[in-house]
Amino acid sequence: MDWYGVRCVFRHVSLGVYEERVTLWTASSADEAIGRAEDEARVYCAALDDVEYVRFAEAFRMDGAPGEGAEVFSLMRESGLRAGEYVRRFFATGDERSG
Fold first, then answer.
1. DSSP per-residue string spanning 51-68
2. Residue 62 near residue 4, CB atoms below 8 Å
3. Which of 10, 9, 2 is nearest to 27 (CA)?
C-alpha cells in the first residue's frame, strides 16, 4: 500500500466559491485512492449546506509515508507565462479566500 494525496474540488453554491481539498489515503493504486477520496467527498458535502462535489479529482503517489516536510501533492503544468503572470492566472487571482 502506498500513500496518496488526492485533490478534490467543491462548489459552495451560496458563498459563490470553489474549494480545493487535498486528503491523504493509503491505497494500492491511484484509482483506489481517488475512489476513497470521492466517497469522503460525498460525506463532506452531506455534512454541509449547499456544497457540491464538482467531480474533479487528481491523485499524487507520495514517496513514502507522510511526515515532517513530506510532499503530499504535486502537479506540473506546461506554460509559457512568466512567473508572476502564472501565479496571478492560476493561484493569486485576487478572488481567493485564505487566511
1. EEEEEEEEEEE-SSS--T
2. yes
3. 2
* Dihedral pair phi/psi, residue 90, rounded to 5°: -105, -20
Q: Which H helix or E strand runs over 23?
A: strand 17-27
Q: All 3 cell numbers of residue 49?
A: 449546506
Domain boundaries, the chain: 2-90
> What cell numbers appear for 83 in the block?
512567473
* Interval 39-98: pLDDT, tens: 999 999 999 999 999 999 999 999 999 999 989 988 888 889 898 898 888 888 777 777
Task: Region of 13 please: left (phi>0), alpha (psi -120 to 50) or beta.
Answer: alpha
- Residue 39 cell numbers, joined: 466517497
How many Cα atoms sit within 13 Å of 15 on the Cβ side?
14
Q: Distance (Å, rounded) from C-alpha 87 to C-alpha 66?
A: 27
Please tell me the distance from the alpha carbon of residue 25 to that of residue 75, in angstroms, as a whole number.
17
